[in-house]
Amino acid sequence: MRALLLSLALLLTIAPAQAQRVLPGLTDGVQYRYVDNGQPYRPLPPGMVEVAEVFAYTCPHCAHFSPMLEAWAKQLPAHARLVLVPGVYDRDDPWPRVFFAAQAAKSLPVLHPRLFAAIHETGELPRNADAAQILAFASRVQGSNATALKIAMANDAKLLPQLKQAYEFGARSQIDGTPSLIVAGRYVILGNSYESLLGNARAVVAALAPKQKPKATARPAPAKPASPRS
Asked: Are 12 and 45 in contact (CB under 8 A)?
């Protein structure tokens, strides 16, 4: 009896983890890779699903993927939200630092595509650019707040926790390259093309949609008794 109770207890503790691993209509190892003890990059309200992209400005694949991802994100259902996460491998790497600094300076929407283009299209910035070169380039970009960006780039008190959070997210998600998509912190999207990555991410997001409660059917009003004939 004791052995039976122990077996039941083990099943009860294992079952929830297995249930999370399996998504209806999808297969672990085909559309996604499940991450044990995975956590989203940032907390979201209940029912919301995070789609995180880990990217690097120096990655040519990320540069090509970025506009495709932006267009795809506009079609996300209401329960999903895209968040960008720079790959962090060194706390002094200027590229993730400029990403967070541009966020603080409210210049990221302008600078994000321009940084990719400056490295991979126009050659205005080398891949090994330092912070001074990046700031000089950003000061020439219309719509970028160069003063606020320079201040934010030097603010280690704010930058270091952000860099640490991004590094830890990539590490626990077991990212082995960029670009990578992670849904809900637990599902690393697999695919052999940009299109298949986006298609599989869409399928995982759909599988994680909050279940809608069935609508209560209105009961018909009771029939009025027939009036007695006179």
From this structure: no
